[in-house]
Design brief:
Strand order of the largest sheet: 9-10-8-13-14
Number of helices: 10
Strand content: 15-25%
Structural class: alpha+beta
Radius of gyration: 53 Å
CATH superfamily of one domain: Reverse transcriptase/Diguanylate cyclase domain
Number of strands: 14
Order of helices and strands: HEEEHEHEEHEHHEHHEEHEEEHE
Length: about 425
């Protein structure tokens, strides 16, 4: 039984471990899914923001080019575009205005952003007229990829412990562009450069990292709660199953009517006691006890009363035996009592005590009281020849003594002896 209990415990532990592993895998998968979804959403948001900023610059350049450029008054710090021919005009009141074409306008706007926001523009080309518009590594690689047909390039890069989002689109040569760039060999429709955007997304990344840590903690906490609830209910279920199994096990070895051990459990206990007796050299006695004229009780008072008589006899037997003794309902109105450590004579005295208890106790039912007597047969293991000290032989010997007690008039105890019957003086 202990081995079966260990197997069941191992099976439960394995089951709980497997369920915990499945829940953990699910939680990790859920976290990875949420992480990837958040990462995708953030990237889409950043990309949409970059496209919006670039579209604003493109529309501004388009507005500028539609009017052939915009003139601004030359004040302190305003220089003429050295790459334009005759960019300045004077008014009658003496003021001077200089032309701002789309390129220089974009350049000047880009110089404003680093001090006022988290993004900056750059207008560049593989062959820039203005040396200040030279490319960096990202822009040069993007311009080369534009020539293969790509329409936008973006990437992330880290500098000085900060993360930047780089975005770039190509600039296509128009008729207005040829006013400045015709000398470079460009034709209308050629890609002559690109507009790049650099956005500081360190804050986005830090917020995303914080959200991921928070999400991981929440998922871990939820997983722990789920597992705790699962363990709690599993342990309760396991205990209930254990109780149910114990109940079934008890029912399998218990006589329902009397509450005593049944015939099956008697044989198991007899094997255990015989092994112990043979191992340690102690004696073991068996009392086979039968209610006298029990059929008459059933016929006279009915089977319900007969069942009550059986239950009362079982109660009296249990109350008048040692805790080390073992009593079972052998079948019908017959009971078996194992007396460890006693020889035949000692067991006979114990059987006589039981007989007297039954004789002097009237069993009170709903109607009149019923007088019940019993007959008993006693046999001990050591009274048998060594070659015949078996379970079946011990039971057979006690049965022979019981039958002899019945033949001799009932309400008495007989001891089985191979050489002679028990003398009355012994009991």
């Amino acid at each position: 039984m202990k081995q079966n209990h260990n197997k069941r415990s191992h099976a439960w532990r394995l089951f709980l471990l497997q369920v915990s592993l499945v829940v953990a895998i699910f939680a990790v998968g859920l976290y990875i899914g949420v992480f990837q979804r958040d990462k995708t959403l953030v990237r889409r948001h950043i990309l949409a923001d970059a496209r919006t900023q670039i579209d604003g610059i493109v529309l501004t350049r388009l507005w500028n080019s539609m009017y052939g450029g915009v003139y601004v008054e030359k004040r302190q710090g305003v220089e003429s575009n050295p790459f334009l021919t005759n960019p300045d005009v004077a008014t009658r009141d003496g003021r001077v205005f200089t032309l701002r074409n789309p390129a220089i306008m974009t350049r000047e706007i880009s110089l404003l952003r680093p001090d006022n926001g988290h993004f900056a523009f750059n207008l560049t080309s593989l062959r820039p007229l203005n040396p200040n518009n030279r490319t960096d590594d990202f822009e040069q690689a993007a311009l080369l990829r534009f020539e293969t047909g790509e329409s936008e390039i973006y990437a992330e890069e880290t500098r000085d412990d900060r993360t930047f989002f780089r975005y770039m689109i190509p600039l296509v040569t128009t008729a207005e562009c040829l006013q400045c760039h015709a000398t470079q060999g460009y034709a209308e429709g050629d890609i002559r450069g690109g507009i790049s955007l650099t956005m500081d997304i360190t804050g986005f990344r830090q917020a995303m990292t914080s959200n991921h840590i928070l999400g991981m903690c929440l998922i871990a906490a939820a997983t722990a709660v789920v597992l705790a609830c699962f363990y709690y209910f599993s342990i309760r279920l396991m205990r209930q199953l254990k109780q149910a199994q114990q109940t079934l096990a008890d029912m399998a070895v218990t006589d329902e009517l009397t509450g005593l051990a049944n015939r099956r459990r008697f044989f198991e206990r007899l094997e255990e006691e015989m092994d112990r007796s043979l191992r340690y050299g102690s004696d073991l006695s068996l009392i086979m006890l039968d209610i006298d004229h029990f059929k008459r009780v059933n016929d006279t008072f009915g089977h319900p009363v007969g069942d009550t008589v059986l239950a009362e006899v079982a109660r009296l037997l249990t109350a008048n035996l040692r805790t080390s003794d073992f009593v079972a309902r052998y079948g019908g109105e017959e009971f078996a009592v194992l007396i460890p450590g006693m020889d035949a004579n000692e067991a006979a005295r114990a059987a006589e005590k039981l007989r007297v208890v039954m004789e002097v106790n009237d069993l009170f039912m709903d109607g009149p009281s019923i007088k019940v007597t019993v007959s008993a047969g006693v046999a001990s293991l050591k009274s048998l020849p060594a070659a015949r000290r078996t379970r079946d032989q011990l039971i057979r010997s006690a049965d022979k003594a019981l039958y002899r007690a019945k033949r001799e008039g009932r309400n008495r105890v007989c001891v089985h002896r191979p050489e002679a019957a028990i003398q009355p003086s012994l009991i």
